Amino acid sequence: MERMESKQKKEKKGFIVRALDSVERVGNVLPDPATLFVILALITVIISFICAKAGISVTYEGYNSATGAIEEITVKAVNLLDQNSIRHLVTTVVSNFTGFFALGTVFTIILGVGVAEGTGFMATLLKKVVAVTPRRAVTAVVVFLGIMSNIASSTGYVVLVPLGAILFMAFKRHPIAGLAAAFAGVSGGWSANLLIGTNDPMFAGMSTQAAQMIDPSYTVMPVANWYFMFVSTFFVTLVGTLVTEKLVEPRLGTYDFSSTESIQDISFDEKRGMRFAGISALLYFVAMLILVLPQNALLRNPETSGILRSPFMSGIIFFMMLLFLIPGIFYGIGARVIKSDKDVVALMNKAISGLSSFMVLIFFAAQFTAFFNYSNLGTIISVGGANFLESVGFVGLPLIICFIILTAFINVFIAVDSAKWAIMAPIFVPMFMRLGLSPELTQVAYRIGDSSTNIIAPLMPFFVLTVAFFQKYDKKAGIGSVVSTMLPYSIFFLIGWIILFVLWYILGLPLGPGAPLLYTTP
């Protein structure tokens, strides 16, 4: 009987490994994301030529920005190989890149995040919270900190995931359960957060450019998904905690604690830096409250005294940058890491240099987007697709749920979230707008699917690092071991997040400040 069970386990493991090997092979065959955009741009050129020669066009009722009225609009496919198109495309290469909405917003916020991360402020904050965590709350705290660490890009992967293992060992719990809980929070909760992170402006920029294919005046704000992601933070924490304690940890069995590691308390200089950072952060919050809360405050709308359409909301990225920059600088001063202004600038330079691959990706993504928009193929596909879906009655929640699942599936093969959204946004955002769904809703649906399968995507950049962490506590661990451990998180995140979204949709709650679920033509 035991032999049969052992054989079944081996066969099951063999199937998982074979399936993952297939995923890895398919993913490795795909070109680099930057190259992928070049290929897509060339495909767009060819299709535009064929569609233009065939006289393909669509007619729809839409907003005419020139007249400011709703009227019947006819759009024809534009041949990107004709002389006028070639002249236009070659003279706008630079402006396509510099005008790409996501570029400036990401660069702005990364200046502050880079200083907070470079001085050690973010890592010290994580270590301090982990060190004072009570036993009963350890799992929830590790998952929650994993989610929150996404503000500082890859800090969670590098700092918190190994800390999760050490913390669990300190409480005589299996270290791999700690690794899994931390990894689930960092990677599975990638889109959730209580604050606005670097992902929010990036997604908002791409969504804005896609939405403007339908409505030139439409802008998706960086805070467009904030309400939903705020609530999602607690949801992911709860689900991650239950999966760890009820499913993952019981399967791991016993662990030899003869070589238990301990969590070192932060040093004297780090404590001094945290005091400096805490005081500066408090003063910054007080200053912001003074500038925003009073009825006639400086950062309110000067005409309506509102907050939603105000200098505060328009400058939210700058204020978020300061939220990281100011405590980061004062922590560096207190911890004696920063000795002059040159050190601050050096940290900013280092943070920006880390965006080099992002810049390359954005350059080619911007050209593809420009080609796609100028050819009118996006409008034709969105109108045709929307008409078809409406004719068969496939709209509303069923459509969005299928879109979430599609995104989750694609994420296993293309793990770069910005690359996927740059490809998908120009098609799905305008298509769903025609079906009455807001760009903010389409964006949040994408983020649900994208985050849910991060933890089982072998091609995700930090997946290999996580495998190495697993091997520290289990020499036989490999890709199959990590995915089999993380699969319950992925399944329950996806199912639970869809349920949360359905409830949110039924209740008609806004996704963020000024971000409705439905889109109505102006």
Number of domains: 1
Structural class by secondary-structure content: mainly alpha
Order of helices and strands: HHEEHHHHHHHHHHHHHHHHHHHH
Straight-line N-to-C gap:
69 Å
Give the proportion of residues in helices.
Answer: 55-70%
Question: Low-confidence spans: pLDDT under 50, at least 5 residues?
Answer: 1-13
Largest sheet: 2 strands, antiparallel
Using the CA coordinates, give the radius of gyration. 24 Å
Strand content: under 5%
Strand order of the largest sheet: 1-2
Q: If you average the pLDDT, what whole number results? A: 83
In total, the number of strands is: 2
Helix count equals 22
| General shape | globular
Protein name: Aminobenzoyl-glutamate transport protein
GO biological process, one term: p-aminobenzoyl-glutamate transmembrane transport
Organism: Alkaliphilus peptidifermentans DSM 18978
Keywords: Membrane, Transmembrane, Transmembrane helix
Would you give an account of this structure?
The chain crosses the membrane at residues 34-52, 93-116, 136-169, 176-196, 226-244, 276-293, 313-333, 354-374, 394-414, 421-439, 451-470, 482-507. Keywords: Membrane, Transmembrane, Transmembrane helix. It holds the Pfam family ABG_transport. This protein is mainly alpha-helical and 522 residues long. The protein has one domain (15-507). Helix content is 69%, strand content 3%. The chain is built from 22 helices and 2 strands. Strands 1-2 form a two-stranded antiparallel ribbon. The longest helix is centred in the C-terminal third of the chain and has 29 residues, at 479-507. It is globular, with a radius of gyration of 24 Å. The protein starts with a helix and ends in a 15-residue tail after the last helix.
